[in-house]
Amino acid sequence: MLVKNISIKNFRNYSVAKTDFSPNLNVLVGENAVGKTNMLEAIYLAGLGRSPRTSKEKELVKNGEERALVYITIEKKFRSHKIEIQIDNQSKKKVFLDGIPVLRMGELLGVLNVVYFSPDEMKLVKEAPENRRRFLDISLSQQQRVYFFALSKYNKVLKQRNNLLKTSFGKEGLDEMLDIWDVQLAENGAVIIEKRIEYIEKLKKSAEKIHYKMSEGKEMLELEYDTDTLVGKDEEIAACLLKNLKKTREKDKKLLYTTIGPHRDDMKIIINGTDVRKFASQGQQRTTALALKLGEMELFKEETGELPVLILDDVLSELDESRQRLLLESTADAQILLSCTEYNLKNPANVIRIVNGTIVE
Ligand SMILES: Nc1ncnc2c1ncn2[C@@H]1O[C@H](COP(=O)(O)OP(=O)(O)OP(=O)(O)O)[C@@H](O)[C@H]1O
Ligand SMILES: [Mg+2]
């Protein structure tokens, strides 16, 4: 799938800007702070319905303006779509798909699939577990709507359960209320865990090959789902989660929050038999992050039949030449939107030059 063109108004540091993209490599070039990441952010926003860098959406509206607009045309195998997003300076957001209002974000997901890679993602291996959970959640939410809906429901119930733990400490009837929330938590949590395990199993297979090649046969990458929930694996995941929620209830009541469940899980990253989440060297971190992202691209293709749009924000400078080459070679079939301050690779590209919020060529 590809982004054919974009038109933005009062978005971040842009007043008005529009450009077409080529189906292959597109390079946004410009000095620091001219608006390269902002442009990529607008595309991510059209795919995921949210920004990769902020949850305060009014930040996306150009200072002093009332409303930011983003129009994007995308082309998929069998049809094309128009996505329009309006955000006002009260953070109110409206999304339209082919002119029709999108009322639930789940309806937008999967229309424009993106894989986003920035220096922050480069740190995925050593970051806190929530970053690896987000990596799984974003990928799975785009690929499978059931996942997104289960995750949204789970987060809502979790918030209510935690609220209850905080506000009803020692009150009568707390256990009966928790009984109700726990059933819903277990039902939706089980979908999340099951899909994550399945996904990691597949991701391991594709990322392992890429990692092996990049490390010149020196490193064997393995991935595993890391959870406290599945003790007593002979049962169904939902039953198991429910049982363990009951088991930890007294602890939860003391700590005033829910201590187990997929919101606490992680992905183990193992190289040559050792869990490297704390110990990976800089090089290993880069190789692994790259292998995970490239593996993710492959899984999108398997799951949806189409390659997603690959957004590479400022990552080339973090990679040595051989990794740069491998990255661009192995994704040559996908549309790539890449940003950098100077482009000096030989790969032919559609170069889009940006100067202070204006596209100059
Ligand atoms: N809401 C806003 N209104 C006006 N300007 C904004 C807004 N949000 C961000 N900016 C400006 O956008 C600029 C940053 O743009 P961006 O992050 O896209 O830079 P960049 O080209 O990616 O730079 P770098 O190469 O350093 O990553 C900053 O000058 C910032 O002040
Ligand atoms: Mg940037």
Question: Can you put this structure into words, describing what you see?
Answer:
The chain has about 350 residues and is α/β, with parallel strands linked by helices. The chain has a domain at about 1-115 and about 335-360: Rossmann fold (3-Layer(aba) Sandwich). Helix content is about 40%, strand content about 25%. The protein contains eight helices and 15 strands. The protein has helices at about 35-50, 130-145, 145-165, 175-215, 235-245, 250-255, 280-305, 320-330, and strands spanning about 1-10, 15-20, 25-30, 65-75, 80-90, 95, 100, 115, 220-225, 265-270, 275, 310-315, 335-340, 350-355, 360. Strands 2-1-4-5-6-7 form a six-stranded antiparallel beta sheet, covered by helices on one side. Strands 8-12-13-3-14-15 form a six-stranded mixed beta sheet, sandwiched between helices. Strand 1 (about 1-10) and strand 2 (about 15-20) form a beta hairpin. Helix 2 (about 130-145) packs across helix 3 (about 145-165) and helix 4 (about 175-215) packs across helix 5. The chain is globular and about 65 Å long. Adenosine-5'-triphosphate binds near residues 32 and 36.
